[in-house]
Amino acid sequence: MECTRLTLCDIGNTSFDFYKDGKKEKIFVADYELKEGDEKIFYICVNEKIATSLKNFPNWINLQDFIELTNYYETMGIDRIMGCEAVQNGVIIDAGSAMTVDIVKDGVFCGGYIALGLHVSHLAYTQISPRLDYSYNFEIDLDKMPKNSRDALTYGQLGLLYRDVVSHSLPIYLTGGDAPKLKSIFKDAILDEALLFKGMKNIMKKANLC
Amino acid sequence: MECTRLTLCDIGNTSFDFYKDGKKEKIFVADYELKEGDEKIFYICVNEKIATSLKNFPNWINLQDFIELTNYYETMGIDRIMGCEAVQNGVIIDAGSAMTVDIVKDGVFCGGYIALGLHVSHLAYTQISPRLDYSYNFEIDLDKMPKNSRDALTYGQLGLLYRDVVSHSLPIYLTGGDAPKLKSIFKDAILDEALLFKGMKNIMKKANLC
Prior knowledge:
Two copies of one chain form a homodimer. By secondary structure, the first copy, chain A, is α/β, with parallel strands linked by helices.
């Protein structure tokens, strides 16, 4: 069957994100009941409890079993691996509760890192002092060192990230819930909210699953 | 009177840090009782409640009143300003609950930023997921992109900071409670736990207070 006709699912800690025929559908974990069925669903899952349950449902196929893990490292999140599988050359920023950044050159993972997501880092500032309760300035000019508090905090998170990411001189891919916000910082980046699903499809093609 | 013979005090949210004759003494806010006295104490204070109380004690002299604030910006912390006043050319990292980074060239503040301190950022990772509960690796090789979880988190905080700080090609000064830990990352940095007091003395000399 053609890959696009198949149902894919990216399972996180809070939701099942389905993808079929180019369309995404999010169902929160609390609202989704696993049922027996015939339709094959190809998934990745970072939620350990759900991963255990899914072993009882043979129509749910874990794409983790089809990855050449030697290219990656043991504790690397499966979502990061799928981002890397989607790209031949690039820096992949997945802006969720964490902000993961991975480098791929000629189809090979070259390392990456995990910064804090926008929401979590903002909360952390407010925990230091209520005087650090500023929203990030996505219109900041990162060519100048900041001379006001809001920009000083923005630079301390997004400026440092920006300077590292652009230093790799590779195409930049943005995905994850906060990707649209980051687009105004990474103006030349490719915004692709289905990037992980592209990686999943590439794995399925390599494994002759479609 | 010579500056070194005078008593200086840096008042934070949790402690009074005294400095006299080259020695520091820390007294926690809860353990310190303000009393009338004759000895002049030259202080800076970020604790608003204490700042208000101190107005009733004429022997406590607020150095904030002697700063040319036009060189800085209105909401900039007085502790950051004192770090800048201590240095003619350099990047000043004050590693406390927040990690402030300020640039001074030819004695002039050129901007700066506020990242998260080590403790707060570590806590923030654990709030995202218990799987991100790694201590930072201060022996990390920052010339390589990480390929393990502990280094991925370390790079996401300290690697990004390092790459920005060294890009300014200026001497690096480290101060604040976590400065000794950062010394293994910033190997060529000047570790100076009395840097803010040096800035205070410079202000006092300019103002003919000593």
